[in-house]
Design brief:
Blueprint lengths: L6 E9 L6 E6 L5 E6 L4 E8 L1 H4 L16 E9 L7 E6 L5 E6 L4 E6 L20 E7 L6 E6 L5 E6 L4 E7 L3 E8 L6 E6 L5 E6 L4 E7 L3 E8 L6 E6 L5 E6 L4 E8 L2 E8 L7 E7 L8 E7 L4 E7 L9 E8 L8 E6 L8 E6 L4 E8 L1
Antiparallel strand pairs: 1-28, 2-3, 3-4, 4-5, 6-7, 7-8, 8-9, 10-11, 11-12, 12-13, 14-15, 15-16, 16-17, 18-19, 19-20, 20-21, 22-23, 23-24, 24-25, 26-27, 27-28
Pfam families: WD40
Family: Belongs to the WD repeat CIA1 family.
Organism: Coniophora puteana (strain RWD-64-598) (Brown rot fungus)
Length: about 375
């Protein structure tokens, strides 16, 4: 841990239960729930809440001063066996928080919905979030020829994107009663597609691949979905993507040990703005861009990967006279999962919890963390 940085990364929960490597974590956008998926073919759900002894007399779950790291409790509430025959590699929540998609190495995508019932506790501080009720498979989407690597819902929940080792990106339209219609099969990449990420407010999709490139897609009224730009610059596999909360910037992380940030320069045009080097010594597998707790600015960007290190940057608009974003490393932690690779990192976007994130590692553990003043 770097002692000269203004913030410290503190572990608030180590969540056991997976019997093989944990691949991804995803925070429910509407309920106090965290989901994780694993090579053990299961999805686990955890509820979180501010401990009563800490939150008493305050409506702000972040207003706990030096006790922030001891203020939040996470509890396992449910497990979905899924029925996938191979590793569950990726998960994604629909914006409503009532539906979860799973992407598996068996090439299929599961769509899961919770049983009807009262007492959702969607935004309650009791941490229930309806997580204890059973989850049912509403539909199974088939089409990919081999391993599904990524799934992502659009900001409005009308579309689901999936990507695969078969080099394709599929876009599915979501209809009532868990009915899905394939709106396009995009074959722009020349190698394995590692992840897909929707713009936070527009129907613009980004994908990253083993072919070292990033593709951006938009809906064309005459040709359905088309690739509108290819972003080249990484020298090896692009593992991860993350949009800035404002949607003006797209970050990418690569096997070449760099993080690049691309800025929107037109309706369907992005250009390179920032490159971060030297922050990791091995492949960067995951990045997440959250609102953070800083004053103004563009939020906090975090990264992790094969070296087990977690870095957090405060991202600011370019200073006067410059076009390049300002980035300041504010927190860093080595060996976050001991000697194991860290496969996923994700910020919690829920109000009052913007300083909390989760990770998933090859050790099978899911960990929750907070970023607190040093």
């Amino acid at each position: 841990m770097s002692s000269d940085l203004p913030y410290t990364i503190r572990c608030i929960a180590t969540l056991e239960g997976h019997h093989d490597r944990a691949w991804q974590v995803a925070w429910n956008p509407a309920k106090p729930l965290l989901a994780s998926c694993s090579a053990d073919k299961s999805v686990r759900m955890y509820a979180y809440s501010t401990k009563p002894s800490v939150s008493a007399g305050s409506d702000d779950p972040s207003a706990v001063g030096a006790g922030r790291a001891d203020a939040i409790a996470l509890t396992h509430v449910s497990t979905i066996p899924t029925g996938h025959t191979k590793t569950v590699r990726s998960i994604a929540w629909a914006p409503s928080g009532r539906t979860l998609a799973t992407g598996s190495f068996d090439a299929n995508i599961g769509v899961w919905e919770q049983e009807e019932g009262d007492g959702d506790g969607e935004d309650g501080e009791n941490g229930g979030g309806g997580g204890t009720r059973e989850w049912e498979c509403a539909t199974l989407l088939e089409g990919h020829e081999t391993e599904c690597k990524g799934v992502a819902y659009s900001a409005g929940g009308e579309l689901l994107a999936t990507c695969s080792r078969d080099k394709t990106v599929w876009i599915w339209e979501v209809h009532p009663d868990s009915d899905f219609e394939c709106m396009g099969v995009l074959m722009e990449h020349t190698q394995d597609v590692k992840c897909v990420a929707w713009h936070p407010s527009e129907q613009i999709l980004a994908s990253a691949s083993y072919d070292d490139t990033i593709k951006l897609y938009a809906d064309d009224p005459d040709e359905d979905w088309v690739c509108v730009q290819t972003l080249a610059g990484h020298q090896s596999t692009v593992w991860a993507l993350a949009w800035s909360p404002c949607g003006t910037y797209l970050a990418s992380a690569s096997d070449d040990l760099t993080i690049k940030v691309w800025k929107r320069a037109g309706e369907h045009r992005w250009e390179g703005n920032l490159e971060i080097k030297g922050a990791h010594t091995r492949s960067i597998y995951s990045i997440s861009w959250g609102k953070g707790k800083g004053d103004g600015g563009l939020g906090w960007l975090t990264s992790t990967g094969s070296d087990g290190k977690i870095n957090v940057w405060d991202i600011q608009e370019p200073p006067e006279g410059s076009k390049e974003l300002e980035h300041k490393l504010i927190a860093s932690l080595s060996s976050s999962h001991d000697i194991n690779d860290v496969n996923s990192v994700a910020w919690c976007a829920r109000a009052g919890y913007e300083d909390m994130f989760a990770t998933a590692g090859d050790d099978g553990l899911v960990k929750a963390w907070v970023v607190v003043p040093a």
